[in-house]
Amino acid sequence: MFRINKMSDYGTVIMGYVATQAGRQCSAADIASQLGLGLPTVGKILKRLAREKLVAAKRGRRGGYYLARQPARISLAEIIDALTDRPFGLTECSGVEGICAQEASCQVRANWRRINAAVRRLLEGVSLRDFTQGNSLLDSGDGARVDAVPPGRFVLNALAGANETGEDAASPVRRKRPG
To answer: What pLDDT does 160 receive?
Structure first.
């Protein structure tokens, strides 16, 4: 089963918290306390997020961390990338070339790579703003929610590159428009 690593999971929680603070600067200690996470872990994550320019910091008595860009301009893929040591991959070989002895003769590698690319596009299409609003983010391409779609339809559409209406399904995320 595919799982986001703990650092990436905590990173999305931390970024979500900072995003909901309406521009207020948050200390690492405040974030750790509010989220029930260890201060060393929060500090490490914030440093990595800052290195990737997803958060910025202001020093001093009233300093703290804040988003470096608007939440709508930060994708979940960027957060995950900032906190993982290797390229995104659902399987070992779908993210990095040359690490599997069976790579040259593998009958399913191409399909895993296509699935990996579809999931990657999905994560690139979900903004931090979308993620923190708690709305249903995903649909099947025809307005139906993914959880209401027969099993396999969503994935097959995403892998095929287009849905039944011919629209590009590379980014199956439908953003909610205000109003």
So the answer is: 47
∠ CA 148-154-156, rounded to 5°: 145
Decide if 11 contacts 45 (C-beta within 8 A).
yes
- pLDDT band at residue 174 using 50, 70 and 90 as cut-offs: very low
What is the secondary structure of 35-97 as a DSSP string? HT--HHHHHHHHHHHHHTTSEEEE-STT-EEEESS-GGG-BHHHHHHHT-SS---SSHHHHST
**How far apart are alpha carbons 79 and 128 in whole angstroms?**
9
Coil, helix or strand at residue 139: strand
Q: If you average pLDDT over every residue of the chain, what do you get? A: 78
pLDDT in tens, 104-121: 888 888 888 898 889 989
Domains of the chain by range and CATH? 6-134 (1.10.10.10)
3-state secondary structure of 123: helix
Amino acid at 136: S
